[in-house]
Amino acid sequence: MGWMDKHNLTMLNEFILMGITDLPEFQAPLFGLFLIVYMVSAVGNLGLIFLTKIDSRLQTPMYFFLRHLALTDLGYSTAVGPKMLANLAVNQHTISYNWCATQLTFFGIFITCEIYILPVMAYDRYVAICNPLLYTVIMSQRLCHLLVAVPYVYGVFLSFLVNIKIFTSSFCGYNVIRHFYCDIFPLISLLCSDTHDIKLIILIFSAVNLVSSLLIVLVSYILILVAILRMNSSKGRHKAFSTCGSHLTVIVIFYGTLFFMYVRPKSSHLFDTDKMASLFYTLVIPMLNPLIYSLRNKEVKNALTRTWSMCANILLKIHCNIH
Fold first, then answer.
1. What are the angstrom distances between the C-alpha of 95 and each of 24, 185, 271?
2. How far is 159 from 58, CA to CA, in rounded Å?
3. Would the CA dihedral through 24, 25, 28, 29 be positive or negative?
4. Residue-by-residue pLDDT tens, the chain, 323 positions
5. Which of 78, 90, 149, 317 holds its CA 20 to 30 A away from the CA of 224?
6. Which of 89, 115, 119, 87 shows the shortest CA–CA distance to 103?
7. What pTM, to 2 d.p., does this model score?
């Protein structure tokens, strides 16, 4: 049996992804739909990264963290989206062994980063509203860089730990992944070797990640709510609520989807339902985040207007110089 496992591991050089649907008539409409979703997501997140980098009025800790939220959204949606679209376009659902490992690694890094960047943003709002006079002192450039660097380093460590455990284990001859991308649990189900250690690592780290990050978010927003209710000015309360509104919307959508995926009892896990939830948090959430911050945030909208005007003036000057 040990020789057979080793033989299967060396011979296995690709996986077959079952994809979103096995009905050929839905391939083209789904390709069109998810191409639009991915393009809106990519343009929106790249736009936010560009805008928060070049606009002088968005050089604050809040927009520094928003830039990294957009980067993580772009990262994990790009780890999954292009390959899924390629499979839909050519109706070929294979993925190489190495690319599967690469896809899972980058997806793990960026999704772990996002889990911790959201509470960092909540802490930033807590300091801004509860300690406004000390905000620039507390949220120094050094602390901001540290609060962003730690999630990236931790994401790389955790993703490599899980992937090394999975891809150094023995796969059976069966290579069909019941998903549209290389996700952890569908891959684990293909292993011949004992999966107890891998499942335990995933369970412990998933629990720690979700509980600790959500605890920071809840404590931050409870303290923010208390501070807002103590404000005498209705204008101040409205400004504080509007500042937090976008972030709260993103948090509810993100954590709501993750809890739907991982906190339900096993008996309620239907394959198609899980795939729909995965589609939502791998492609739809990264599209929604820049839209939420663009539509709900006055400063971002003003920065977007200024940037459009600047680009229009540059194009006009080039046109005039040519003619």
1. 19, 17, 20
2. 32
3. negative
4. 343 344 444 457 889 898 887 777 888 898 999 999 999 999 999 999 998 898 888 899 999 999 999 999 999 999 999 999 998 888 778 899 899 999 999 999 999 999 999 999 999 999 988 888 899 999 999 999 999 999 999 999 999 999 999 998 888 878 888 888 998 888 998 888 888 888 888 888 988 998 899 899 999 988 988 888 887 777 777 777 776 777 788 888 888 877 776 665 554 445 566 777 788 888 988 998 888 877 677 778 777 778 777 777 777 777 677 76
5. 149
6. 87
7. 0.86
C-beta atoms surrounding 169 within 10 Å: 19
φ, ψ at 96 (rounded to 5°) = -65, 155
Is residue 88 classed as helix, strand or coil in its secondary structure? helix
> What residue spans of 12-96 are helical by DSSP H?
27-54, 61-90
DSSP run (H or E) holding 238: helix 234-262
* Selection from 67, 86, 77 nearest residue 106 by Cα: 77
Instruction: Dig out the tokens for 7 from the structure.
Output: 């033989």
Helix (H) or strand (E) holding 95: strand 94-96
> Which residues fall within 8 angstroms of residue 223, CB to CB, at 6 or more apart?
126, 130
Six-digit token string for 13:
């050089």
How many Cα atoms occupy the beta-carbon half-sphere of 309 within 13 Å?
7
- 222: burial class by Cβ within 10 Å (0-12, 13-18, 19+)? exposed
**Residue 114 DSSP SS3:** helix
**How many whole angstroms from its chain centre is CA 159?**
14
Cα–Cα dist 58/72, whole Å:
19
